[in-house]
Design a protein that fits this description.
Layout: E1 18-24, E2 27-34, E3 39-43, H1 55-61, E4 66-70, H2 90-103, E5 109-114, H3 116-127, E6 132-138, H4 146-158, H5 163-177, H6 183-197, H7 204-211, H8 218-230, E7 246-251, H9 257-266, E8 271-275, H10 282-285, H11 287-300
Parallel strand pairs: 3-4, 3-5, 5-6, 6-7, 7-8
Antiparallel strand pairs: 1-2, 2-4
Length: 313
C-alpha cells in the first residue's frame, strides 16, 4: 500500500519560531511555535512523516495565532528509546498530546491535522473532548476499517497508474513492511506515491520539494499501523458523541476523499469544504483557495475564547 496518510521557510523567524522539547521516560518530544494568540496544535500525516511536510501551514497560521507544530513520537527528533511496539502505539500518541497541552499550560486548543494527523486528532478528541476546542481536518485520515481503507486506496492507486507503476510500488512497499527500505528506495517510493496524490502532474516539480521535506520513519509507520489493526481502530460509533465544531478541507481529486465523504455521513454536523483540481495536498496545489478557506474557519473560531491556561506541577 502507498503511504497516503499522510519547511522550514527562510523567513520563519519573522513569525517568532521557537523550538523546544518535553522530557519524558523514553526521551524528548519536540515542538515548534509560531506567532501568538489562539493555540492551534498542528499534526502532520503518516504515520511516521516529518512535521516539516506541513510547516508552511503552521507558519501561515502563526501570522494571527499561536501555531504549535508537533514532532510526533517516532518522527523527526522525537525518537523514543526503544523504538518498538511498547513506545509506538495510539495510546502513547494520545498521552503525548496530553503531555504537550499540560507543558504549554493549555486547558484546550484547536487541533489541525493533515491525513493521518486528522485521524489522530479525531481519536484524541473523542477520547479527551474537554481538551479540544475544535477540529480542522485536512484530507481526512482513517476513521474505521483499515483493511477496507487499504483496499480502497490501493484500488484508487491502480486507476491512476499502469501495471508497471503498480508493480513497482508493491515491490517498494514490500521492502517497507520487511524493514529493508534503503534511502534511495524511500525517495523513489515518495516520488511514485506523489503522482497518485497530485492532480496537476505538470506542477509536480514545484510541489514535490515541499512534500518530501524531512524523512519518513517507516519503522514508526509499521508499528503504528500494526497497533491500529490490533486494537481494531474504529471511530464511527463514538463520532456523534463529539459536540465541538469540526471542519474538513479536502481536495476533490484526493485518492482518500472517500474518508471525508464518510466523515460527513458519520458526523452530519461537520462542515466540509471541497477544493477542485486538488489531490491530497490542497495547501500546495491550490494555495490561495486553501488559505482563504482556512482563514474563514479561523474567523469563525474568533468568537471562541482563547485556550485557557492551566498550571501544572
Amino acid at each position: 500500500m502507498v503511504v497516503f496518510f499522510f519547511s522550514i521557510l527562510t523567513d520563519a523567524s519573522v513569525f517568532g519560531q521557537k523550538l523546544d522539547s518535553i522530557k519524558y521516560a523514553n526521551g524528548y518530544l519536540y515542538y515548534h511555535e509560531y506567532g501568538k494568540g489562539r493555540p492551534v496544535i498542528v499534526l502532520a500525516g503518516g504515520p511516521g512523516i516529518s512535521c516539516e511536510q506541513i510547516e508552511d501551514v503552521a507558519i501561515e497560521l502563526g501570522r494571527n495565532n499561536r501555531a504549535i507544530l508537533f514532532e510526533q513520537r517516532g518522527t523527526g527528533r522525537s525518537i523514543p528509546v526503544p523504538l518498538d511496539s511498547t513506545t509506538i502505539n495510539l495510546k502513547n500518541a494520545h498521552e503525548d498530546l496530553i503531555l504537550l497541552l499540560n507543558h504549554l499550560q493549555l486547558k484546550d486548543a484547536i487541533f489541525l491535522g493533515h491525513s493521518w494527523g486528522s485521524g489522530l486528532a479525531l481519536s484524541f478528541a473523542i477520547k479527551h473532548p474537554d481538551r479540544v476546542k475544535s477540529l480542522i481536518l485536512i484530507d481526512t485520515g482513517p476513521l474505521r476499517n483499515l483493511i477496507e481503507l487499504r483496499e480502497t486506496a490501493a484500488g484508487n492507486r491502480s486507476v491512476r497508474y499502469g501495471k508497471y507503476e503498480s508493480d513497482e510500488l508493491d515491490s517498494l512497499n514490500s521492502k517497507m513492511k520487511a524493514g529493508k527500505m534503503t534511502e534511495q528506495d524511500s525517495l523513489e517510493n515518495r516520488k511514485m506515491s506523489l503522482y497518485c496524490n497530485i492532480y496537476d502532474k505538470e506542477n509536480i516539480k514545484l510541489i514535490f520539494p515541499k512534500i518530501v521535506r524531512g524523512k519518513v520513519n517507516y519503522q514508526t509507520y509499521k508499528l503504528l499501523i500494526e497497533d491500529l489493526d490490533r486494537i481494531h481502530f474504529d471511530l464511527s460509533e463514538k463520532l456523534l458523541l463529539f459536540k465541538k465544531p469540526v471542519y474538513a478541507i479536502c481536495g476533490r481529486q484526493d485518492p482518500l476523499a472517500f474518508d471525508t465523504y464518510e466523515l460527513k455521513l458519520l458526523l452530519p454536523s461537520a462542515q466540509v469544504f471541497w477544493i477542485q483540481k486538488s489531490g491530497h495536498f490542497p495547501m500546495y496545489e491550490q494555495t490561495d483557495t486553501f488559505y482563504k478557506i482556512l482563514n474563514e474557519i479561523m474567523e469563525k473560531e474568533k468568537n471562541q475564547k482563547p485556550g485557557t491556561e492551566i498550571h501544572t506541577d
